[in-house]
Amino acid sequence: MATKLDDAIRIHPERHLEVVDYRLSQGARQKADLVQLAIYAHLLPIWRPGCAFSGTLEYYLPTFHEVAVAPDEAAVALSRVRQRSSVCA
Q1: What is the CA radius of gyration of the chain?
Q2: Largest CA distance in the chain
Q3: Angstrom distance (rounded) from CA 52 to CA 50
Q4: What does the pLDDT look like over 5-52, one tens digit per residue?
Q5: In the sheet that 8-12 helps form, which strands lie side by side, from edge to edge?
Q6: Do residues 64 and 26 lie in contact, with contact meaning Cβ atoms separated by under 8 Å?
Q7: What gap in Å lies between CA 18 and CA 80, rounded to an integer?
Q8: Tell me, what's the pLDDT at 85?
Q9: Is the Cβ–Cβ distance between 81 and 38 less than 8 Å?
């Protein structure tokens, strides 16, 4: 059984670049799962300025399902992480 899958950036025919975060879970912690995708979404425009992108969480256990994540959803998740970290500082 796989214990880790690498994440990916792939070309999506409708949404340009697609950042994919693979998850070996059932998606019960979707808000927490968004954090890593949000970091990727923040870094991608630095790597490819002006490039449109979308995000996807892909869950593999117990069965496959995917959740599309809009760039603004990823930005909100990253903002929440920043707010929490400033409280702890």
Answers
A1: 14
A2: 42
A3: 6
A4: 568 888 878 767 888 888 887 767 777 788 888 888 778 778 878 877
A5: 8-12, 16-23, 53-59, 65-69
A6: no
A7: 22
A8: 63
A9: yes
